[in-house]
Amino acid sequence: MEVIASLKNVNVEELCDKAVKFAEKNPVVVGAGAVVALFGVTRMFSPTKSKLMRRDGKDYNSTISTNLLNNADHTLKNDEFSTSVDDYEGMFDGARESTGAITSDESIDLRKQRYADMVNHFYNLVTDFYEYGWGQSFHFGPRFINEDFLQSIRRAEYYLALRMGLNEKSKVMDIGCGVGGPMRNIAVHTGAKIDGITINQYQVNVGNRYNTELGLSDRCRSYCGDFQNLPWAKSTYDAAYQIEATCHSPDRVATFKGIYDCLKPGGYFTGYEWVMIDGYDKNNKDHIRIKEGIEVGNGLPTLVEAQVIVENLKSAGFDVLDNFDANRGMHSAYEIPWYDTLNGSFTAAGFRMTHIGRCCTHALVWLLEFVMVAPRGSTKVSALLNATALDLVEGGQDAIFTPSYFFLARKPE
After folding, report:
1. What is the pLDDT of residues 133-159, one digit of tens each?
2. What is the pLDDT of residue 360?
3. Distances from the Cα of 253 to the Cαs of 173, 197, 240, 303, 315, in angstroms?
């Protein structure tokens, strides 16, 4: 415990900067050391052979994982990762170099036009990192002081199920389902049958394997498709939800209208949206910097203010019954701020979420890429996520951004 406590006083940025500079100047020395140090844990892995993961919920339980971007379920192989990173970064040209560069109409329009490629690239690259560091539910949630992280995540999901009134007879859409963590939790909790959609085939592969391995394939199914153009028949679902997913949409009115069409009359649509909140000042250069950092690190065309979400729902035909920031009490004495998880805790379970923990993961990814266990481009992805974690924390601390703007809407009878 004394060693763990002492880590809190380490100047992480200075330490990482020195380590990276040494590695860049001495690649042979570092590489040789990496081979020796990692031989014991990587001897069973081949850079040309992807690993078959169990998908039983335990693949990422170990502190050190060599499964990142290197498993048989993935749709990208070898140098395709690097090509994907380069194309993704090109859609955010100037980000973090010149504040305001990606807020121009030209930059936003480019991402809206190429949103399918942008989002698909993003989740091809980050899904493994998300699951390793976060779990199967890729979202935040309000958290009370008597809750641990996973309890708060599930409570956020169960709240949606409660507001939709789900039961074992309900047929539900999960819009932007990721690898299906919320889908499975809600299905187990309510008995509902849930169809999920994601634009990313890798997430479909992973999600459906989880559904099968956990005995839920009769109630949960992931489909590859675009939520701008849903593949399902009109008036066939009782309810729908999205959790921090439609922030990727280039046109939310079109997205919401598609959901509206697939719902039966009287059907509910609910979710949590990423938005800028009242504290945001569009003329404040530092606020713009934080906003742009969140956008480039999360595959977003652009972030909007909360009222836009309400207006978009109404424009799609919905009656909006409720809307509020689920994190509105985050700075009270009885809640833990949503962004605090990104600071992590110095425990065996929480260490990988700390700044030091993310730096350790980043160093490991660099080494694995150097010895060709991880594909080329892995280190860039790790760096992207580390940078955006800091932007998210700043956005939360300054009360200019929330990932949990709740809404409840209904299709008229």
Report:
1. 899 999 999 999 999 999 999 999 999
2. 82
3. 17, 18, 15, 15, 6
